[in-house]
Design goal:
This protein has helices spanning 23-31, 40-50, 65-77, 98-106, 119-127, 144-154, 170-181; strands at 7-10, 34-37, 56-59, 81-85, 111-113, 134-139, 160-164, 189-191, 199-201. With 202 residues, the chain is α/β, with parallel strands linked by helices. The chain starts with 6 loop residues before the first strand and ends with a strand.
């Protein structure tokens, strides 16, 4: 097998069922020299599932991502293949990774983003809501006042709005959505996507 060319490989990982890993993602995980992981313990479970034992792991999360840049760029500029994963889904989408990706692009390093699992895309398709136009806004602010201001700025945006919400704060988020966007707007809540207890509330 040919060595993996140097560059930063952005590798999406399963959002629930470990069998959702793609063949290309599994192959890339086996071949990178260094793997940046949001939580090395979580990633180790996936690697064990795939029978991968010899990859070098380095933690890279929201609290240390900028501190890792010099070491990571040094490895990338030396021509090594470096992988980047988050705990679930696509790195950089409401997860760590965007800082490393932007730095690699700025340094002229080849960045290869592999296709694969992404929670909000899966939720959108399964929701039954319009998919021809949509806006993903990630997590809304935790406080109601700030959250309502953001929702107000989105009220006139055409298409489906997609947002993430923590389970413990879901009721408050939904209440603000009704107050700002109106009670007649169609809504779907998706939880445990790709897991045993997956549910859609429409």
């Amino acid at each position: 097998q040919q060595p993996l060319p140097g560059g930063l490989y952005v590798i999406p990982t399963p959002i629930g069922n470990l069998q959702d890993i793609t063949l290309r993602a599994a192959d890339t995980l086996r071949r990178v020299h260094l793997l940046l992981a949001e939580d090395t313990r979580h990633t180790r479970k996936l690697l064990n599932f795939l029978g991968i034992r010899n990859v070098e792991l380095m933690s890279c999360h929201e609290h240390n991502e900028k501190l890792r840049l010099s070491r990571v760029l040094q490895r990338l500029e030396a021509g090594e293949p470096v992988g980047l994963v988050s705990d679930a889904g696509m790195p950089g989408i409401s997860d760590p990774g965007a800082v490393v990706i932007a730095a690699a692009v700025a340094a002229g390093v080849n960045v290869v983003a592999l296709p694969g699992p992404c929670a909000f895309v899966t939720a959108l398709v399964g929701s039954g809501l319009a998919t021809d136009a949509f806006s993903f806004v990630g997590f809304l602010p935790p406080k109601s006042g700030a959250r309502r201001r953001v929702l107000d700025s989105l009220a006139a945006v055409p298409g489906t709005l997609i947002m993430y919400a923590p389970p413990h704060g879901l009721a408050a988020v939904l209440a603000d959505c009704v107050a700002v966007l109106g009670p007649s707007r169609r809504c779907c809540v998706a939880r445990e996507i790709s897991k045993l207890h997956e549910e859609y509330f429409r």
